[in-house]
Amino acid sequence: xxxxxxxxxxxxxxxxxxxxxxxxxxxxxxxxxxxxxxxxxxxxxxxxxxxxxxxxxxxxxxxxxxxxxxxxxxxxxxxxxxxxxxxxxxxxxxxxxxxxxxxxxxxxxxxxxxxxxxxxxxxxxxxxxxxxxxxxxxxxxxxxxxxxxxxxxxxxxxxxxxxxxxxxxxxxxxxxxxxxxxxxxxxxxxxxxxxxxxxxxxxxxxxxxxxxxxxxxxxxxxxxxxxxxxxxxxxxxxxxxxxxxxxxxxxxxxxxxxxxxxxxxxxxxxxxxxxxxxxxxxxxxxxxxxxxxxxxxxxxxxxxxxxxxxxxxxxx
Length: 316
Prior knowledge:
The chain is of the alpha/beta class.
């Protein structure tokens, strides 16, 4: 009898019961801390600064201890490796929640080119399938899908194919153990009605909602007005959103690539004010370069001086 009871409980534990809210139905940032990767570029820079007795050590440590996005790029973790990597991230996060950013769509960053790359079209959905496999059994996780990819479909590359691939990715992730937000650009790019149409095209109603301002620096009031308008056009089915506030503290720069004068914005955390906003996030890791401009290293490389500049300008 004890063995039978154990088997029954095991089966029930593996099911999502009808009265239990699924990952697309809840704000994942409420009631659970978001993970800060102890092996991030900021953490390594903080350790180096601490060892050297640098006056920047405390700022870098505070940046490192602030939860930020973990970017999945196929050049680092391809189809054969990404599932195991995601499993490790989920395991290392423990009781905290990882925020994963998928960034592998074909002709990635086709508008700017500094982060050019991505997968061949035939490999993209298999790669996303492996991400989903790595998420299997995660207690809670959040995903931002393909920064810039949706709106850039109007500007370069094969837009129809990109929308097809993003729709396929949304479908795969909708059934995963993660809460999913489709990237929706920012308030200074495309009109809300255009963005809402694109989000519908890729099936955003199947997931939690959308993300704005990723790796950009539009100020939060502008982003909230934009996101609220997009959400109202989408309706209740997909009217939830998150905003990247990592570089929004001083308003937008004149250029998108490492513009001077930016500052850290509001620190990450859930929003429970009755609006469509689920959370403020630092999706783009603070201090990661946008590309080799304004004296910066290649895109995605941690730049300690940049992180310190953003923090000091914000009054840290």
